[in-house]
């Protein structure tokens, strides 16, 4: 099976061995990417969470020959980082202009985002600031003609209302790391959006019912690494029982705590793109469909939205 991880935070310092500013172990990013490739991950979309991360992702890709055709990036500003627009030295318009410049600077940029609304973490950025600069990023999508990589957490109708009002500005969009209700999912599907699923999307029995109901032609999968791994406490964990031992070696290699780091092993609680196969198998089991057939459907869905990946 082959996979495209539509959301991985590969600029996170954890992949360089840094945790809260402290070096816990050596940089092992190259081995993380090697494990992903060996596990069938053909392409990884690095999530751009703000202007600086977006720049760093593109520079890292363009300065690494091995990354060509393997790593891609999104460009945007996460809702919890939207205060950066107003804190920017030359003001919000200059921040927007820089995002536009970066988004059009490289063929490795495949989407605008991560952008949206997040009311679970208002201590980072208030609602009005989030809404103001989420709306501004629809204009980025319109100008670049790129799809949108969207984020939504506990926003009532605000997210839906803003997307609906601006839906004419972009052709395709995916609401990634979806954890919403069945009703919310159906409303987003009615806006002709795709739904991205990862470990956080499958924590509860209610989550599983939502995943089961996502139309196959609107489904994508992701890891959201280094976050959102599938854990034994998750409802989806029981759906991994049929994964073969050979596949488990690829999708869940041996891991050690960061304090006992061993080069070549995964780090416990640090998710990686190599676990894409676990997400696929969990979704296939939940939906009672053949994993290979589902992998092909999801691959085609992903290439439809991010058409520069084909």
TrEMBL record:
MF (Gene Ontology): 3'-5'-DNA exonuclease activity; metal ion binding
Protein name: Uncharacterized protein
Any one of the GO CC terms: cytosol
Top-level taxonomic group: Eukaryota
Positions of a divalent metal cation 1 binding: 114, 224
Keywords: Hydrolase, Metal-binding, Nuclease
Residues binding a divalent metal cation 2: 151, 176
